[in-house]
Amino acid sequence: MDLTKLLYGGDYNPEQWLAYPEILKEDIECMKQAHINTVTLGVFSWSVLEPEEGDFQFGWLEQIIDDLYENGISVILATPSGARPKWLADRYPEVLRVDEARNRELFGGRHNHCYTSPVYREKVRIINGELSKRFGSHPAVILWHISNEYGGECHCPLCQQAFRKWLEAKYRTIEELNERWCTTFWSHTYQSFEQIESPSSRGESMLHGLTLDWKRFVTDQTADFIREEIAAIREAGSDKPATINLMYNYEGLNYHKFADLIDVVSWDSYPTWHKGEEYLTAVDNGMQHDIMRSIKKKPYLLMESCPSSTNWQGVSKLKRPGIVEAQGLQAVAHGSDSVLYFQIRQSRGASEKFHGAVIDHTGSRETRVFQEVKETGRLLGNMGGLLGASTESEVAVIYDWENRWAVEDAMGPRNKGVCYKETVEKSYRAFRKQGLNVDLIDMEQSLEGYRIVAAPMAYMFRSDFEKKVKAFVEQGGTFVLTYWSGIVDDTDRCFLGATPHGLADVMGFRRKEIDGLYDGETNAMLPTDRAAAVFASRERYSCQRLCELVELTTAVPLAVYGEDFYQGMPAAAFNRFGEGSAYYIAADAEQAFYDDLYRHVVDEAQVERILDCRIPEGVEVNARQTEEAEYVFVQNYNREAVEMDLKDEDYEVVHGKKGTAIPPFGTVVFMRRKSGRA
Ligand code: GLA
Ligand code: ZN
């Protein structure tokens, strides 16, 4: 997508202020002062845009778009399908969602509609077309914001019917479905597709193949809805790019399936800052940024973030001074071409009246929040050179939605906290501590171009993942696998024979058993003599939750268990295969184990780090590339300043100070010109 500037601004809901013309005027002045250059309009405007069926009232919106344009402010225009008007729900009850217990919802809330309903699709198609005709070539409009935070599922009769058709297209015969879902278990064999019902706590919830396919269907049905929304815009003449705003850690939809439907990925980030150490929040939020970036492996947009406190989390804490700047720059560091807030002006009533905003109820430009927003806008204004800059990464961690669905539903050695995301985060964090950009890709994505791939808790092998891994290692790649990997196929049927499936030779071991540990229980991982240099800092590491027992064939042990009946058995191992290397971590090791092992792995694979100095705990390093230069971001998420040995000669400072300590929540951005091009 071609932008002309880094976008700065956020959601703006002027329909809540139409009775206050002086406020609408004042808002534009505030935006200009805060260096805001973009707002998102119309996300929840349907009842104002179409107060009666077929009666379109777009004049107010046109006026606002024109006023913004005259003031140099661009518009991201939303389609309004995220919440529908009352008349629509009253006249066409089929648009309302049915929950898993088969109860139809009442009108209310938002995101409360069926994605299958032909009536809902038609009504959305009509209003999207009208919006496209009227505003699709307005020079202020730069991007379509399709609906809002797609999510949830519907179990209505229309959805059931669509699900059965989806299953029939996938399996062709009911015998094949029975085989793949293992339905002879508990005598649940189906005789026809017509008998199938979506999973329900009142009915079937133990056929894991059914549950998985239902989730895949929900993703596909949502994708189909998105496709129709965008098609309506295109058919009515607008070719402006389109995005959907994704959510933090949202499990319900496999976001990768939307990659090809949209022009740019965007997401909404609401980290709970100051809940414990800030750097832990920064790592977690950073990982989400990288997950979102890796969906298209392209620059993306931060669509929403809060400049102050939210109001929907258990406790809504104010952001300490400096966090607005830090979180905004963190987004840009990870590959975002925008910093956008929810919202510009705080709502007067209803459920978001206390949600933080750029302009609060006082209307003042002197508030602490406004001043921080203004300052962040000012410094982003100096970073235009970064626009469209790419993120290059030689390291990937596998983060796979379908695997997550399966592993959390599996009913295995731990149902209480199998901790997939946390396990992925340990690998991610260990690489990030080495000062590396990291991609988070799923099993369908290619491994080409990577030097190191880590697959934590890759329970389900799908999409020929094991074949890709084998070729990758054969040709010289470095692969890391953890416990509880390569166990089931893509309908959650256990592989028969040696596991990790298809990789027993690559890894040089065979799985035998896996032990679930009670909360609070630990075992130890003791480095072997041959690995003493790798684990120089410690004589033992602890592990918890899951301990896998394996028999090594060609691999050599790097650590052994310290306790219990499997004391002395391998707890980590290394194997050479083809031109490459394979590492295995048998248990849920503490972070320090990952940190020490991955330092060695990165050294061995000779992956170049962004900085050639030690990175203190709590410091994030990222790099983005343009043709002319590399931009390096160094962010300190500690509550104390940190000293870093950044070599002054090599770089020009874009933001922050040269040669001094980096203050708490402070950022240094510098630029290294590419040789031969300066
Ligand atoms: C979500 C929604 C917004 C708003 C914010 C509040 O991200 O998309 O409309 O409700 O939450 O944090
Ligand atoms: Zn439905």
Summarize it:
This protein has 678 residues and is of the alpha/beta class. The chain folds into 3 domains: 7-157 and 207-379, Glycosidases (TIM Barrel, Alpha-Beta Barrel), CATH 3.20.20.80; 395-605, Rossmann fold (3-Layer(aba) Sandwich); 619-673, Golgi alpha-mannosidase II (Immunoglobulin-like). 30% of the residues lie in helices and 19% in strands.
Helical coverage, percent range: 25-40%
Strand content: 15-25%
Task: Give the number of helices.
Answer: 16
If you consult CATH, what is the topology of the largest domain?
TIM Barrel
Radius of gyration from the alpha-carbon trace, in angstroms? 26 Å
Taking the alpha carbons of the first and last residues, their distance comes to 26 Å
Overall, the morphology is: globular
Low-confidence stretches: none
Keywords: Glycosidase, Hydrolase, Metal-binding, Zinc
Binding site for substrate: 110, 148, 312
Catalytic activity: Hydrolysis of terminal non-reducing beta-D-galactose residues in beta-D-galactosides
Enzyme class: hydrolase
